[in-house]
Amino acid sequence: MIYDVSHRNRIRYDGIVQLAQFNIRMEPIDWPDQTVIDHALTMTPAADLKTRPGSYLARLTQARIDAPLAELTIESRFRVRVDRQTPTALPGDPSIAEIRDAALRVARLDALAPANYVYPSPRVPLDPAIAAWCAEDLADDRPVVEAALALARRIKAGFTYDPDATEVDTPVAEAFAKRHGVCQDYTHIMQAGLRAAGLPAAYASGFLRTIPPAGKPRLVGADATHAWVLLWCGDSRGWIGFDPTNGVTTGSDHIVTAVGRDYADVSPLDGVFLGRTRQRMKVEVDVIPIVEETDAA
Questions:
Q1: Maximum Cα–Cα distance across the chain
Q2: Are 236 and 212 members of one domain?
Q3: In the chain, how many domains are there?
Q4: pLDDT band, very low/low/confident/very high, at 48 (cuts 50, 70, 90)
Q5: pTM of the prediction?
Q6: How much is the mean pLDDT over the chain?
Q7: Cα 65 from chain centroid?
Q8: What was the pLDDT predicted at 230?
């Protein structure tokens, strides 16, 4: 499937800002079975843009505006091909214990090395209550893909999707106690449980397709940025996506933008401004599937 994606951040300040500086992570990465065909990043008013490699798997653009301003728009437009098959549990999948042991034997520190994602991170500390709750699905002898999917489905069933319940900086323990939140909270909770079991669990930021497949329900998170867990399932299976907001593994409906330890590594936009005022931001996302000629024939 080919997608055209538009991701706009409209920022308005209550007064005049003298300087604004941003870190932008809105250009998608190439990922297994996903290829970026083209991409354009624009800012209005225009800014000085500098692109450099970001932390972990993120493409970072730094922007600086020195002129006074009251509002601005940052827009990322791209076309991407996703040919990913939806993963399923297979006979012979390694167990939780086998993955935990294998992760510690991987002697490398590249961006996708399991060691980067097995330990606590700033937004995903180890939490005894979350660890105990998730452990019910993560017995040592259970096959890893089956177990992770069961945990994703239990999180979906046990939590209420509620955009008003949490903020972007809500601690994972608070979201877990409320049993309410958004995809970011669901993902951090699942990561905390998996890491407590010794499993490498990364944070994926991206999008869901806007139009659901025929006969399927509309997925929560469409027309918005989305997040899910990437779990390292051994050398043979690699990194597999689990979406606890929807209780599924991730296939061609999920578009990966960036991968990190938690939300702080891959937030689409962060920065500072100089001025005694407040800001308001509106995010607009369009994900449009493109019918290929071969599909339409």
A1: 61
A2: yes
A3: 2
A4: confident
A5: 0.92
A6: 92
A7: 28
A8: 98
Nearest to 27, CA basis, from 278, 272, 294, 268: 268
Residue percentage of the chain with pLDDT more than 70: 94
Specify whether 39 is located in the same domain as 152: no
Residue 88 lies in a domain: no
Residue carrying structure tokens 């407040």: 278
Paired sense of beta strands 160-161 and 180-181, if any: parallel
- In-domain check, residue 273: yes
Residues, the chain? 297
Looking at the domain assignment, is residue 87 inside a domain? no
Q: Are residues 146 and 257 in the same domain?
A: yes
Domain extent for 9:
2-82+268-296
Mean pLDDT value of segment 203-231:
79
Query: DSSP letter string over the chain?
Result: -EEEEEEEEEEEEEEEESEEEEEEEEEPPPBTTEEEEEEEEEEES--EEEEEE-SSB-EEEEEEE-S-EEEEEEEEEEEEEE-PPPP---TTPPBHHHHHHHHHH----STT-GGGGSS-BTTB---HHHHHHHHTT--TTSBHHHHHHHHHHHHHHHSEE-TTT--TT--HHHHHHHTEE-HHHHHHHHHHHHHHTT--EEEEEEEE-SSPPTT-PPPTTTTSEEEEEEEE--TTT-EEEEETTTTEE--TTEEEEEEESSHHHH-SEEEEEESSS-EEEEEEEEEEEE--HHHH-
Residues 268-277 have pLDDT tens digits of 999 888 887 8
